[in-house]
Each structure stands twice: as C-alpha cells, then as structure tokens.
Design a protein that fits this description.
The complex is a heterodimer.
Chain A lengths: L1 H30 L8 H7 L5 E4 L2 H4 L4 H8 L3 E3 L7 H12 L6 E5 L15 H14 L3 H10 L6 H21 L25 H7 L3 E2 L6 H16 L3 E6 L4 H6 E2 L1 H4 L1 H10 L3 E3 L6 H4 L14 H19 L12 H4 L4 H4 L1
Helix pairs in contact in A: 1-8, 4-15, 5-10, 6-8
Chain B lengths: L5 H16 L5 H16 L4 H31 L6 H49 L17 H16 L9 H9 L1 H4 L7 H9 L6 H34 L6 H32 L17 H7 L2 H16 L2 H10 L2 H20 L3 H30 L7 H19 L7 H13 L7 H4 L6 H20 L5 H5 L4 H24 L10
The chains are: A alpha/beta, B mainly alpha.
Amino acid sequence: MRSFKKILLSAVCVLFSFILFFAVLTVPYMHSEVNYYNDANARKELAGSLDMLICGSSHGVSAFDPKIIDGTLGCCSYNLSCINMTVSDICFLTEKEIERNPVKTVVLELHNGPYQNAAFQQPPRENRAEGGATMLARLDSFSEKVSYYFKNRLYTCPEYVSSLLLSNGVTFWLETIKGSGTNGVIREDKGFHTSPSVAVELTKEQAAEAYHTKEYDISADSKMTEEFDRFITNWLDKNINVIIVITPMSDTHYWLYRDYDTSFKWLKNYCNEKKLPIYDFSLLKNKNVLFPENDSFWDTTHLSTTGSQTFSRIFAETLLKVQNGEDVSDMFYSNYSEAEPYNIYNLK
Amino acid sequence: MSITSFSFIAFLFVCLLLYYILPKKFQWIVLLAASTVFYLVSSLKGAIYVLLTSSSVYAATRIMQNMTDRQKAYIKENKASLSKEEKNAYKARIKKKRKAVMLSALFFELAFLCVFKYAHFAVDQVNNILSTFNTAGLNNSFNLIVPLGISFYTFQSVGYLVDVYLGQAVAEKNYFKVLLFVSFFPQITQGPISDFNSLSAELYGEHGFEYRNFSYGAQRMLWGFFKKMVVADMLTPYVNAVAEKYTEYTWAALAAGTVLYTIREYADFSGYMDIMCGYCETLGIRLTENFERPFFSKSLAEFWRRWHISLGAWLRKYIYYPVTMSKWDMKIAKKTGKPLISAAIALVFVWFTTGLWHGANWNFILWGLLNGVIIIFSLFAEPVYGRIRKKLNINDSSFIIKLFRAARTSLIFALLEIITQFGTISEGFGFWKRLFTVNCIPRSFSDVLPFVSGKISFLVITAGIALMLAVSVLQRKKQIRDYTAKIPVPVRSVIFAGLVVIILIYGVPASMEGGGFMYAQF
C-alpha cells in the first residue's frame, strides 16, 4: 500500500510537471499568429463577410490567392487550406466557416496521391499527426480542440502530435525572445501562403530514366468517401455551389507517375453523379506555356509565388466564364492519356 | 513494433500491469505471452524460426539430460557390481551419445544462422572465384528475410545447449519456459546474450512489486530513450552525410565524423540496453549489463570487456577457453615455449567470429581481425611497455596517464569502427586515406562540421553528449539513480518531465527520420 501511494504521488507530480511544461510552451503558441495557419483570429474578424471559401491541403494553400480571385469575381473569399489537411479536416473547417458566413460558393482542392492527405486514403501516421497538430492550432476553443483530438483519433499518434505542438511552442518562444516577429499571419493574404519558384525540370538523362517509374495506391477509403458525401449533400441542400478543383502540377510530376487517370477515377465519377463541376487544371491545354516548369513551382506539385498568381487569375476567369454561361470544356484535355503527348518531355 | 513509439510504451505498461496483477506463479506466462505478441507483431514469418530453435534446443537438452540422469541412476544402482573400467567405458559411451546429440543440435541452430545471414555472402565469394575462371556464377537473387534477432537468440540457445552438455546447467523440463528463455522480448533483438542459469532464475522466479525497482527502472528507461532518440537519432543524419560525402570533406570533418559515429553507436546501443534493462528492472528482473563505461578503458582489451559485455563473455566461454584448452593449441604453446601464442591463436578465432557475427561483409571481418591484431600485439608488447614505463618513471595511476590511455583507446576504437559504416573495404580504406592525408588547416566551424545544418540541433546534441559524460563520471562512485533518489519528489518530477519534453521536441522527429536501432541489423 505504501509503495502504491509512493507511485501515485510520483506519477501525479511527474504528470503535473509535464502538463505545466506543455501548457507553458503550447498555449501561447496556440493563441499566437506565429505561422500562417494560426489564423483563428483572422477568420474570426472576417466572420459574417465571406461568400466564397476555398479549402484544400498544401496544394490549395499555395495555389489560390484570394486577392486576385476577389478582384476578378467581385467576391469576398478566404483560403482555408493548410498543409496535411485530410478530406475530413477540409470538410470540418469549411463547415465551421459556413456556419458563421453567408457562403455561396465552396471550392475544394482535392487530389489523389501517395502520402497526400487531401486524398481518399488513410495517410501515414506522421502526416496525420502533422495535419492534426496544425488543425489543433487553428481551432478556437479548448473544448473544440479536445473534441477534434478524440474525434480524429489523434490519440493513436500522441507522441508525434505532442512533438509538433511543443516544437512550434519552442519556435514561438524563441521568436518572441529574439523579437524577430511572431506575425506569420498576413491578413491581406487571407490564408494564402506559398514559396518562391524552384527549378524542377529534369535533365534529358534523368527524364529518360524516370518515365512512369512510380504509381499511386488508387483505392478510395469508403469511410472517408461517405463522410465527404454527407458534407457535400448538406452544402448542396443549403444551395451552396460546390466546385472541385485539382491544381496544376508540373509536367515532371506527371512524367514520374503512371495511371493518373485511374487514381482520380472515384472523384471524377462522384462529381459526375452529383453534377458537381470539377476542373482539373493539370489538364489545361497549353499548361506548359502558362506554367513554365522552372518558374511556376516550388516543388513538382506545389505552385510557387509566380505560378499561383497565374493560376488564381486563370481560375477566377474560368469561373467568370462559367457564370456567364460559357462552355469551358475546350480549355482542358479530357484525360491524362490525351494530355501526355504535350508533356514537355515528349515535346523535346 | 518500433521500440521508440508510444504504442510500444503502452504495450510495456499493459504487460507490467498484468505481471503484477496476476498471481506470481503466472508471471513467467505473462512474459511469454508478451514475447509472443511482440515477435508476431514485429516479424510474423520469423516466428517459425524461433519455434524451431527453441524446439530443437529443448529436445536436445532434454535428451542429454535424460541420458545424464539415466547414467547417474544406472551407476548408482550397479555401484557394487560394476568395475572401474566398466564404469568408465559406460560413461564414455554415454558421453559420446550426448556429444552426438549436442553436435547435431548445434549444427541445426548454426545452420539457420549461417543460411539466413551468410548465404548471399557465401554465394558472392563463390561467384567471385568462378568469375576468375570465366565460369557462370550461381544465382544470388533469392530473397531471404533474416528472422528478427536470429544472431542473438541463436547464440543464447547455443550457450544453453553447451551448458547442459557440460553439466553446468540442468535442462528445463517445461518447453514453454525454454521458449521464453529463447524469445524473451526485451533481449531478443539486441541482447544482452544471457546464460541460462542466471536468466532462468530471473525469468521463472516470482517477483513482488517493489517501489525502488519500479522507480529505478522507469528512470533508467527514460535515460535510455533520451540517449537513443535525442543523441543517437539526431546524430544519424550527420554521420550518414560524412559516409556519403567523405571525398568532399576535410580531414577535420572526417575526424569529427569518426568521433560522432562512435558516440552515436554508443548512445544507440547503450540507450536500447537502458530501455530494456530498465523495463526488466521494473519487473524485478535483472538482465546482464552490456556496458561498463567503455570510454574510460585504458586498453583495447579492456574496452572490449566493457563494451557489449555479454557477447564478449559468450565468446570467451564458448570459443576462447575451448580453443586455449584444446590439445592442439596447448601443444603449440608447449612447442614454442610461449604460452601467449596459445592465447593469440584463440584470439584470432574470437575476433574472426566477432567480425563475422556483426556482418556478412569483408569490412566486418577485417574490423574484427584488426581489433584482434591490436589486442594480440598489446599482449606481446606489454612487457616492453612495462620496462619503458619503469625507466621513464611513469606513474600509471596518475590522472594524466589514465586520461591519455582512455583517449588513445577510444580513438583506436573509433578509427576501427568507422570502416564498418562502409559497404566495401576500399571505401573504408579510402576514408582512412583521406583522413590521414588531406592536408589543410580548418579555419571555420563549417570546415570541421560542414554536415551540421541547424545550430540549435547541434547545441542540443552537444548538451546531450555532455550530460552522458557527466552521468558516466558520476557513476564511477555510485549509480546516478542513487543521487536522484535524494532529490525531493517535486523537483525530481520537474527534471523527469523536462527530459520527456526534450525527447518529444527533438527525439521524436529525429526518430521518425530514420531511427532504427543499429545493433538490430545484427
């Protein structure tokens, strides 16, 4: 009994100390705006004014510039995207903003790919933890965070989630002590965030070796697709326009991966059934001209500062054409097999 | 199941709870069940080889034990009627049969190890020979998945087999207890390699809960996680960079890389030992220690008595002594008039085996033999050194001399270890060549540590290494946990919680990027 009491006392002391450390490091971080995605306050300030929501994962956050979209379409949009958001996270956060905004249009950036969270597959634990940790930082209240933690089963990877939160907390404190700025959220950007361009084009020899050497796991998880369908149906019932977008990726990326048509099959079939417009900007005709390989991406799949400006303009103009009753199907190839001859590595 | 994951810690906790909640007579069954779950989750296909090993060892030891028991009973019964010659002849017959059983089982055990671990290597060597005769080589593309921990549990099983043969251990009657001995999960992947008598007493005994064991064990586990995740795993990208780009770095960077590789290896392996020995301590089970502050050793021979102690003890007992006590070895010593030659021959066997055990690769064999050559040379040179020390009035027990000898020994160890990091001997020699011949004076931090990317990460690693050194120095007098036991509980709790936070911030990301255990590959 005495041993048991000793253990209990020790355990309580250690646990209390740990909670104290955790709170001191993470609570100020969660309330700060040290990263671009610590935007809970920014979104709160805009509550009641947004009529277009854009949400996706890392491809989305680096592609859609609300300033350009608002200027072209005359709307008030916000880019809710963030790295490693799962389909569930995308729907959850979008729904949350719909509840406090007069939303007329929802644009969802989705794609299928290995280790990609915005896909209908269970991501690896590390990616899930990263997405979960950033989501926890974006939610408003403590109760919401706790609910999200358990609902999304982040307790299956607690070491990764705690590690990320604590690391971000340390970064926050170091930035605060250095006085080097804890303002990662730029309100004018309205959630948009990207990086400068990096050359991604392969050499001739690399291209020769790399053609279609990778493939995707193409199965769609049924639980995820059911949850997705519930949200979409709910939004359609509220007369919200739902648009699915696949952002343009580099020709290098498509050169590496085979079976892209198959990997998007579920999503495109779903959109056909629900009569949802789906725009795959990787199938844009003359994509190579509009998005030069070495000046539009910061890696093979993410648009850079330059690429995102072009994309946002083209995206907004496409929506404007659709609003004016124009047929935009001529802008796109119908599938990847049709587009492949125009890949820069085939044209060279 | 990754040992540095939360799910493994949860698994340990559940085992601990069951171990103490259930009646003590079931404790060994809990350990067996846990070991089974651990092995099946980690390596389902490999489990069959654990079963084969344990079954063959069980059968062989039971047969030998039965023969011994029947021999004793027969001699006792017929004490009066048997002459001395008849008794000796009978004993010799039984011994021959027992030897046959032991050798058959030994062959069976080692055959598995050799096939899984050395088949590709052997075929490569045969193909190299065949290619010199322009003959087509053998097919080497077959896929053999090495069962998890095969090197460790095979050696442990062989030790048990030989101990029963020599009459130093009594064969266990319960097969499942033998299975537990072979497959005990805290030691199956990286040791320590224990002898049956000491480990069985711990495993099969009944252990009551003691606060001290639990507290000390948990602290040791925490320390193990810190060493493994914060020091070893954070060093991994640096040492990998040195190995991959050594042709681009200065001698200073290669020297730094050599030292960091050794520190990483020590933190990795001893960290694992701390985690597992610490866990066993919480269960009231004492495992053999595998490290005894090796970097304080004054000679390479002493170093290897303090590093991977259990492997050294196994090799000493089952290779060194049998060789030195064999007739042919003693004959050579007698003929040459130099008993050291007998020791030297045995050491060649020991170090060849050590190299081969570590890896099916000429680098490891060369590494083992080089260690052996240096130790043998030291043996023969010791009288000469003694005379020099006497003439120069060098005080062996002075701090400076001890420090010099420890630094020299650690450096020799590090220089030999580094070649095991490369795939081929020529790469290893290329590293040494560059280390000792590239001539330039380092002028900045980046000349010495060009592979360090983040200053904060490096500061954390440096602090971790300094902490390890401080703990080693303090432990010369008594265990660090005896020191912490004197600290008030609230203060101690803050320290431990702080350590957990550091492990989470720095150790978890480092482990995710490639945190497997180095010795698990053996």
